[in-house]
């Protein structure tokens, strides 16, 4: 038997490959030495680098690309270098059996063991990525939960956490200069949750963010006045929508998610 390293590659934050590999790994525990995750590989240089690593490690590349160009390039280069690859739409167990020479220790049936719960989770994660940070505001009524709030109020991590619990979540950033999407006023406010943060704490977070981006002194993004204006405008929208408001200051992501879910269950 041969032990291998699996490289899970995507051009987005998509977790489909990760979920499939974790399920496949459970059938080949003694043959899979390590699983490494590489999201946001969105150019040919990134693919070349990963294929080079896979060649050195004698590994398998599990990939999912939205870009047909990157998908085609991955397939062409992997074939050229004789590196095994797997598109998440294929049969993972057969691929692993062929590479490792090991027979799976238990049955792996997508229609039963991955079942409805698994596919709901995948759909929820894909939805959260598609509707992250206001990238998409059409069909918001398909969301189970909609998070709105000013920048740096933990909208994205809360969305991903809830998606891993099978909830379809959209999150929308609020900026005074940009009108909120009309769709917010056309759906039930029971789905909508406004997120706020202590202004001093938010100033600190934004200041650190600016430092990390090398923009210190060139933006009012982290100023107290700007933060207060944004929070006041956001509160006006929350009042207009009549949605629940959650103060996320000093709260863990799990705690915030629990508040949201408890509120949904009560309703």
- How many distinct helices? 9
Q: Tell me about the largest β-sheet.
A: 4 strands, parallel
Helix content: 40-55%
The residue ranges in which pLDDT falls below 50 over 5 or more consecutive positions are 107-113
Backbone shape: elongated
Q: What oligomeric state best describes the polypeptide chains here? A: single chain
Mean pLDDT: 86
- Cα distance, first to last residue? 54 Å
Strand order, largest beta sheet: 2-1-3-4
Strand content: 15-25%
Number of strands: 8
**Helix- and strand-based class?**
alpha/beta
Order of helices and strands: EHEHEHEHHEHEEHHEH
What is the CA-atom radius of gyration, in angstroms? Answer: 22 Å
Description:
The chain is an alpha/beta fold and 267 residues long. 44% of the residues lie in helices and 15% in strands. It has helices at residues 16-25, 44-57, 68-80, 92-100, 115-130, 155-163, 199-212, 224-241, 253-266; strands spanning 4-10, 32-38, 60-64, 85-87, 145-149, 169-173, 192-196, 244-247. The chain has a four-stranded parallel sheet, sandwiched between helices. Strand 1, helix 1 (16-25) and strand 2 (32-38) form a beta-alpha-beta unit.
